[in-house]
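Colleagues,

For the teaching module next term, I've prepared a clean inverse folding example: a structure given as tokens, and then the sequence designed for it. I'd like students to try predicting residues themselves before seeing the answer, so please don't circulate the second half yet.
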């Protein structure tokens, strides 16, 4: 449980104290309250003392070893809210904001409190060795594809903190690339930030970009990742995830990039859908390139990333906060989870590992039962789950009830670095020939034939060996 300070000892604060104390899910431990009403100072609410005023936040964090803050003053002005948020961030603690009464009354849709996704993890969050990466990136150029996305933009932020010479932000969305470019350029540091609008499906454009900037490190985050959408758009999955990866890998090889890290997914393991199969084929392209190039090509597989665009958790959170019916596919559904920051840190750290291997996966602990996650979200929202209505909508086309991080044939007993699985995978020459044929002729096939083809190709082969690290 995270030691929690509740800011506000009024009705909202009292409600939150009771919710945290009597909830079955023990996520947060209420240890103290703060309130600007001097008459409340010294009061004890359900065993939790009021220890000071809002000005004392930093003192309370230090004195009570606070890890998390719940801001429970619905009437607090947004300007004052933002100041508390900044103070919490500066102190390195998480924070959740209860919606104001004014916000809820002025909108047909109730305000949704901010959610700290790290609280949902039942393990320590993965951390990046910034000192090591600063040495690794010194004087280097780093190129990120999909740099406007939730993962790509966070990779860009983390890379900047490691202080390379240049960061090339490549993306197809003008608005998102503009936003991350503006954000990274705010402090006028010596790091050159270069925004590039490009579609990775355009081989000539990708080749020109790599030829111009000659990146040392490439983080390939651009991809279509939504399972239901790709079930209905298989050609797009092939064009973007397979051909796009081939274009990036080929261009990186041609200019002699030092390392290329491609972001993949646990859905690429024994895939049953178009998205997973297309990412599995992209992995095989990386494996083949790694064996036929001086460039070090690597794959990082993710579980579900909490808070990323299209993630199911923000949908659940919104439904809970708005008192809506919860839509869940299956009561036994499980998933592996990680936060956006640790996913991005993993990608960067994987590029610096000295161990030979082509696949890197974060040890995310045991898979999480989605129903258990929903229960935690109810606790975070300060609501009782007993009154919730859950609509089981059924498993969607191509979806699994349980995901895997790797194939059984890829596992071995050796241990390497902390918190990361490291494995070696291979792409047979016959597989490579079939992938090449697919990339050149996919547009001539029906969707049914294409689906059968990519699932067949994605599920064959698979030599490899994993090492779990503890």
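(Answer key — instructors only)
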């Amino acid at each position: 449980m995270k030691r929690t300070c509740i800011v506000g000892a009024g009705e909202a604060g009292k409600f939150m104290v009771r919710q945290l104390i009597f909830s079955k899910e023990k996520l947060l431990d209420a240890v103290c309250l703060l309130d600007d009403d001097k008459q409340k100072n010294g009061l004890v609410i359900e065993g939790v003392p009021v220890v000071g005023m809002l000005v004392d936040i930093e003192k309370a964090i230090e004195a009570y070893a606070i890890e998390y803050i719940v801001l429970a003053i619905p009437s607090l002005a947004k300007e004052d809210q933002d100041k508390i948020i900044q103070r919490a961030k500066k102190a390195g603690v998480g924070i959740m904001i209860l919606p104001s009464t004014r916000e809820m009354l002025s909108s047909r849709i109730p305000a949704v409190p901010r959610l700290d996704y790290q609280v949902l993890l039942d393990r320590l969050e993965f951390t990046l060795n910034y000192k090591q990466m600063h040495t690794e990136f010194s004087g280097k150029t780093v190129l990120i594809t999909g740099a406007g996305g939730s993962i790509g933009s966070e990779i860009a932020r983390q890379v900047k903190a490691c202080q390379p010479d240049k960061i090339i932000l490549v993306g197809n969305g003008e608005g998102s690339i503009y936003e991350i470019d503006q954000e990274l350029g705010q402090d006028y540091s010596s790091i050159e930030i270069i925004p590039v609008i490009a579609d990775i499906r355009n081989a000539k454009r990708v080749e020109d970009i790599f030829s111009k900037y000659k990146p040392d490190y490439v983080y390939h985050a651009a991809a279509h990742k939504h399972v239901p959408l790709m079930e209905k758009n298989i050609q797009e999955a092939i064009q973007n995830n397979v051909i796009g990866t081939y274009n990036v890998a080929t261009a990186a090889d041609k200019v002699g990039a030092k390392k290329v890290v491609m972001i993949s997914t646990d859905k690429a393991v024994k895939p049953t859908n178009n998205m997973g199969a297309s990412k599995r084929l992209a992995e095989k392209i990386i494996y083949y390139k790694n064996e036929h190039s001086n460039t070090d090509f690597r794959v990082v597989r993710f579980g579900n990333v909490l808070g990323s665009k299209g993630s199911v958790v923000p949908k659940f959170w919104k439904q809970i906060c708005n008192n809506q019916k919860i839509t869940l596919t299956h009561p036994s559904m499980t998933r592996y989870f990680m936060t956006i920051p640790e996913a991005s840190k993993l990608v960067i750290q994987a590029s610096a590992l000295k161990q030979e291997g082509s696949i890197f996966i974060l040890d995310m602990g045991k898979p999480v039962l989605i129903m258990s996650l929903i229960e935690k979200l109810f606790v975070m929202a300060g609501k009782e789950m007993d009154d919730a209505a859950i609509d089981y909508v059924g498993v969607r086309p191509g979806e699994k009830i349980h995901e895997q991080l790797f194939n059984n044939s890829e596992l071995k007993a050796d241990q390497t670095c902390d918190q990361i699985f490291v494995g070696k995978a291979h792409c047979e020459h016959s597989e490579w020939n079939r992938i090449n044929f697919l990339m050149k002729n996919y547009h001539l096939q029906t969707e049914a034939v294409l689906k059968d083809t990519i699932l067949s190709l994605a599920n064959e082969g698979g030599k490899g060996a994993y090492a779990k690290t503890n």
